[in-house]
Specification:
The chain has 74 residues and is mainly alpha-helical. It has helices spanning 13-20, 26-39, 43-50, 55-64.
């Protein structure tokens, strides 16, 4: 059985962790990833720009889960 692109986990650690924490749904990650790619901006910038997750909520989550920049596992 082949794996379709929609069923593959996100390549980046941040979207993968946000999915696991149930802060984002798969459709939200896919939409933000498409925006990120088309606008040629980092995922985190596209996420904030989309309004899908507020900056304060993202910062709190990252600080509580030790996801400070540079510590993300690729």
């Amino acid at each position: 059985m082949s794996v379709t692109p929609a069923s593959q986990p996100p390549a980046s650690a941040l979207p993968r962790v946000l999915l696991q924490a149930k802060l984002l749904k798969t459709q939200q990650v896919e939409s933000v990833t498409r925006s990120s790619t088309s606008e040629k901006i980092p995922f985190i910038d596209a996420l904030i720009k989309s309004g899908t997750l507020q900056p304060v909520a993202l910062a709190q989550f990252c600080s509580q889960t030790d996801l400070a920049p540079g510590k993300w596992i690729p």
